[in-house]
C-alpha cells in the first residue's frame, strides 16, 4: 500500500466533520502502562470521564498504546482496546491510536506492574516511552516491534471507531523531567528513532488499513522568532513527507500558530493539530479553538481530567511567556469531580460543537 493520494486524503477529511478532542489518560493512571495493563485498567473511570467529555461537546480523543503490555499480554491488551473502543462508541467519541512514543520523561525503561508514584511538583514525571529507549537504540530488537505494529494495525484495520493511526509520538524526544528541571537524554536516540519511524510507516502500510497514517511534526518552540526554523528537524520533514494526513504539535501563541499553519498548508493535505493548549505558553482555548474550527483543522488539546500525570503543572523549568499572567493550570480541563477549571472554556467548546452540528 502506498501513501494516500491528496484526493483520498481530502475525501477522508470531508467525511469526518470537525474533529475536536483531547489527549487522554484517565485520572487514575500515571502513564499509559498503568492505563492499559490488566491490573490497573480502570473501565469505570474511563466511562465516567468520557461521559463528561461527550457532555462538553468533544467527538474524538487521542491516546497511546504501550508496547510492553502487548509484548507480555497481547490477547489481554486486544480485549481491553476493544472494551475501550466500546466505551468510546457509547459516548459518540472516535479514536486516534498512537503506537509508539519517545516521551520517556521518567528516564527509565518501561516496566510492568505497580508504577512509581508521581514525583511531587513534576509534570508527567512517570511518562514511559513505547517501546522504550532501550529498544529504540538497538535495531536488533525491532523484530517484536514490527510484529506489534502489524498486529495492532491489522487487527483494527477496519474498525470504524478508529479514525486514524498516529504511528509515533514525538520521535527523537530525548528529554527527562526532574524536580531540578528538564535535561537532554542520549543524543544518539535521534538517528535510531528517525529510522524506526520510517520503518513503522512501511510496516503499517503492509496491513492495508482503512484509516490514514500520520506522525506529527513537533519541533516548534513557544515564543520562537523568527518562524523560519519551525518543523525543520529532519524527522519532522520525513514525517510530513510520509503522512497521509498532516499532523503537528503547537504549544505556541496565536501569531506563531498562524505562521505554523501557513507553513503546513504547502503540503496540500488536511491538517490535524494533535497536541496544543498550554496556558502558560499562551496556547489558550479562547484564541485558538475558534481558529481551528474556522480553518477546518481537527484539534486535540492536552488533557481532560486533572490526575496522576500532574499535567496541570507546567513543564519543568518553564516560567511562561507572559510573566504577568496568572494562568493557573498548564494543561487539563476538569478536576477529579468533573468540574471545569475554567467554565468559559467548556462553554466555548459546547458552543462551537453546536455550531458544527
Give a verbal description of the structure.
α7 runs parallel beside α8, α8 (189-206) packs parallel to α9 and α11 packs parallel to α12 (343-356). With 357 residues, the protein is α/β, with parallel strands linked by helices. The chain has 12 helices and 10 strands. The strands form 2 sheets. An 8-stranded parallel beta sheet has the order 7-4-3-2-1-10-9-8. 37% of the residues lie in helices and 14% in strands.
Set down the secondary structure blueprint.
Elements (H helix, E strand, L loop, with lengths): L5 H11 L3 E4 L8 H5 L6 H14 L3 E5 L2 H6 L1 H17 L3 E8 L31 H4 L5 H14 L6 E8 L5 E4 L2 E4 L4 H18 L6 E2 L19 H9 L3 E4 L4 H11 L6 E6 L8 H10 L3 E5 L40 H14 L1
Parallel strand pairs: 1-2, 1-10, 2-3, 3-4, 4-7, 8-9, 9-10
Antiparallel strand pairs: 5-6
Helix pairs in contact: 3-5, 7-8, 8-9, 11-12
Q: How would you concisely characterize the structure shown here?
A:
By secondary structure, this protein is of the alpha/beta class. 37% of the residues lie in helices and 14% in strands.
Features:
8-stranded parallel sheet; 357 residues; 10 strands; alpha/beta; two-stranded antiparallel ribbon
- SSE ordering: HEHHEHHEHHEEEHEHEHEHEH
β-sheet strand percentage: 5-15%
The largest sheet is: 8 strands, parallel
Radius of gyration: 19 Å
Our measurement of the CA-to-CA distance between the termini, rounded to an integer number of angstroms, reads 34 Å
Oligomer: single chain
Return the average pLDDT rounded to an integer. Answer: 94
Strand order of the largest sheet: 7-4-3-2-1-10-9-8
Tally of alpha and pi helices: 12
Described by the principal axes of the CA atoms, the overall outline is globular
Count the beta strands. 10
- The low-pLDDT segments are none
How would you classify the helix and strand content by structural class?
alpha/beta
Percentage of residues assigned to helices: 25-40%
Amino acid at each position: 500500500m502506498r501513501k494516500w493520494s491528496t484526493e483520498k486524503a481530502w475525501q477522508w477529511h470531508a467525511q469526518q466533520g470537525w474533529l475536536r478532542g483531547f489527549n487522554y489518560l484517565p485520572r487514575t493512571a500515571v502513564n499509559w502502562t498503568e492505563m492499559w495493563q490488566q491490573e490497573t485498567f480502570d473501565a469505570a473511570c474511563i466511562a465516567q470521564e468520557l461521559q463528561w467529555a461527550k457532555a462538553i461537546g468533544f467527538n474524538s480523543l487521542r491516546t497511546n498504546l504501550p508496547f510492553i503490555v502487548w509484548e507480555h499480554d497481547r490477547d489481554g491488551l486486544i480485549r481491553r482496546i476493544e472494551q475501550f473502543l466500546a466505551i468510546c462508541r457509547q459516548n459518540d467519541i472516535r479514536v486516534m491510536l498512537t503506537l509508539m512514543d519517545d516521551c520517556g520523561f521518567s528516564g527509565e525503561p518501561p516496566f510492568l506492574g505497580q508504577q512509581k508514584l508521581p514525583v511531587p511538583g513534576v509534570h508527567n514525571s512517570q511518562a514511559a516511552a513505547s517501546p522504550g529507549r532501550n529498544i529504540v537504540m538497538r535495531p536488533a530488537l525491532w523484530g517484536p516491534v514490527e510484529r506489534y505494529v502489524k498486529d495492532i494495525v491489522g487487527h483494527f484495520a477496519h474498525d470504524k471507531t478508529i479514525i486514524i493511526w498516529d504511528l509515533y509520538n514525538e520521535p527523537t524526544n530525548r528529554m527527562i523531567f526532574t524536580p531540578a528541571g528538564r535535561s537532554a537524554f542520549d543524543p544518539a536516540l535521534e538517528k535510531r528513532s528517525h529510522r524506526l519511524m520510517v520503518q513503522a510507516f512501511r510496516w503499517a502500510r503492509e496491513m492495508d488499513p482503512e484509516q490514514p497514517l500520520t506522525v506529527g511534526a513537533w519541533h516548534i518552540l513557544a515564543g520562537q522568532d523568527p518562524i523560519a526554523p519551525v518543523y525543520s528537524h529532519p524527522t519532522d520533514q520525513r514525517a510530513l513527507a510520509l503522512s497521509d494526513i498532516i499532523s503537528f504539535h503547537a504549544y505556541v501563541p496565536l501569531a506563531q500558530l498562524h505562521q505554523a499553519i501557513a507553513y503546513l498548508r504547502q503540503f496540500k493535505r488536511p491538517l490535524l493539530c494533535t497536541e496544543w493548549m498550554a496556558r502558560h505558553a499562551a496556547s489558550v482555548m479562547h484564541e485558538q479553538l475558534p481558529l481551528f474550527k474556522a480553518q477546518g483543522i481537527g484539534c486535540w488539546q492536552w488533557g481532560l481530567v486533572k490526575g496522576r500525570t500532574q499535567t496541570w503543572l507546567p513543564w519543568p523549568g518553564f516560567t511562561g511567556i507572559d510573566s504577568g499572567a496568572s494562568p493557573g493550570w498548564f494543561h487539563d480541563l476538569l478536576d477529579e469531580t468533573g468540574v471545569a477549571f475554567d467554565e468559559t472554556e467548556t462553554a466555548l467548546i459546547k458552543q462551537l460543537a453546536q455550531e458544527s452540528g
